[in-house]
Write a structure and sequence with these properties.
The complex is a heterodimer. By secondary structure, chain A is of the alpha+beta class. Helices cover 34% and strands 25% of the residues of chain A. Chain B has five helices and five strands; from the N terminus they run E-E-H-E-E-E-H-H-H-H. Classes of the chains: A alpha+beta, B alpha+beta.
């Protein structure tokens, strides 16, 4: 194995594009090193992207935030303003693993690891985040919900790297929330995760909503029908019932040791109700 | 493949070592620098036995490459006592019988010190969540949590 730690995106892209064998990007390494250790992966080249400035910064940009793909969960939590504007994203990123994992794990890695149960991904999708992707043909911005295609399969070409995530400008009366269900209180993988971002108008009615679910299909889902259930409502029972039903209907889960299909579908609706209530309360104060 | 020449600071001392690109920081600490206080438990980032701090950030040394340590400042369990004088956390672990077999203890101590450096007056809940990534199969955790809270109180009073 060859290890490279370039200081620019151009160099990193060049190294990955020129690789003849399996080449992997190293951000926090909390998934990559486990997969190397257990012989799931045996890369010929590992490109450490943590020496590239854009990937390690959180910057305010165009009224929103640009978060470097290699910023750690611990750094997101310590950022002075991010959590007050996008609490759901910071909470989701901070649910990943232990304190030790938080010291290294990144949202770029969480997405590019290609797990349907990645906690930060539904929160990014709900927020309307764009991934800024850099490759040998330049830079493109794609919606986070379009990055992952299936388990371990991404819509990235050879040599392409996610450099950063762009969170949209803060709109008055907007907030987000993320909830996940696991069978214990810490250190487990989501049975279901739900991210919701919404905007409340001056009368307290929902004027915009995005609902995303994780761990209930082969990829994290943006559920437009569930978002429509909230529009115009003040989260009355009728709207929450529609949200619950739409969330459940969108699920195409698997049975595994963490939960059955039926259980995941049920929990998706419950988490959607609860996340909507938290996002709504936050939005009314925002 | 050629070994990498790594220059770092470990427990305040400048060190240099040679390391294979795929070698973990844990293996580099133990095998190149002969600092065997940091333990290998699961090797997959689940148990916390290999906890160290890198530039004051708590991490699992099994989930970091040795080559990534270049230019970094690392603290391990070996840097905790000052000569013959135990750190208050170490002393309280003894007083509270917060260890039995001891394999998890260096990781717990390093993790607990990272917490108290950041937050000198944690609640019991904060201690439990902070240490959720450190597994102990002997004590049942309660004695560890008591020892950390007691050490925190002593350090605040000192």
């Amino acid at each position: 194995m060859r290890y490279e730690a370039p200081s620019s995106l151009e160099q990193a892209v060049g190294l990955l594009a020129a690789a003849t064998g399996d080449a992997r990007v190293l951000a926090g390494g909390t998934d990559l090193l486990v997969q190397m250790r257990t012989d799931i992966l045996n890369p010929e080249l590992v490109v450490d992207i943590k020496h590239i400035p854009e990937l390690r910064e959180v910057k305010e940009e165009a009224g929103g935030f640009r978060i470097g793909a290699a910023v750690t969960g611990a750094e997101l939590k310590e950022h002075p303003r991010l959590k007050s504007v996008w609490p759901g994203i910071v909470e989701a990123a901070n649910l990943i693993g232990s304190t030790q994992i938080q010291g290294r794990a990144t949202m770029g890695g969480n997405l590019c690891n290609g797990s349907p149960a990645a906690d930060s991904v539904p929160a990014l999708i709900a927020a309307g985040a764009k991934a800024s992707v850099v490759g040998s043909h330049g830079r493109r911005e794609i919606a986070v919900e379009d990055v992952m295609l299936a388990p371990r399969k991404l819509a990235l070409a050879k040599g392409e790297i996610i450099a950063s995530f762009l969170l949209p400008a803060k709109v008055k009366g907007s907030a987000d929330a993320y909830l996940r269900f696991i069978p214990r209180t810490e250190m487990d993988i989501a049975v279901v995760g739900c991210g919701i971002a919404l905007t409340v108008d001056a009368n307290g009615a929902v004027s915009r909503a995005r609902v995303a679910l994780g761990a209930v299909a082969a990829r994290p889902l943006l559920v437009e029908e569930a978002a429509r259930a909230l529009l115009g409502s003040k989260l009355e029972d009728a709207a929450l019932n529609k949200l619950d039903a739409a969330a459940g209907a969108a699920c195409k889960p698997i049975d595994d040791k963490r939960g059955t299909k039926e259980y995941r579908i049920k929990v998706a609706g419950v988490l959607a109700r609860r996340a909507a209530a938290i996002a709504y309360e936050r939005a009314r104060k925002a | 493949m050629a070994k990498h020449h790594i220059t770092a600071t470990v427990n305040g001392d400048p060190v240099e070592f040679l390391c294979e690109p795929q070698e973990t920081l844990l293996d580099a600490l133990r095998d190149q620098l002969h600092l065997t206080g940091t333990k290998e438990g699961c090797s997959t980032g689940d148990c916390g036995a290999c906890s160290v701090t890198v530039d004051d950030r708590l991490v699992c040394s099994c989930l970091m490459l040795g080559v990534e340590a270049d230019g970094k400042s690392i603290s391990t369990i070996e840097g905790m006592a000052q000569g013959d004088e135990l750190h208050p956390l170490q002393q309280k672990f003894l007083e509270h019988a917060a260890l039995q077999c001891g394999i998890c203890t260096p990781g717990f101590l390093v993790a607990a010190k990272a917490l108290l450096d950041k937050k000198p007056d944690p609640t019991e809940t904060e201690v439990r969540y902070w240490l959720a990534g450190n597994l102990c199969r002997c004590t049942g955790y309660d004695k560890i949590v008591r020892a950390v809270l007691d050490a925190a109180a002593e350090l605040r009073g000192a």
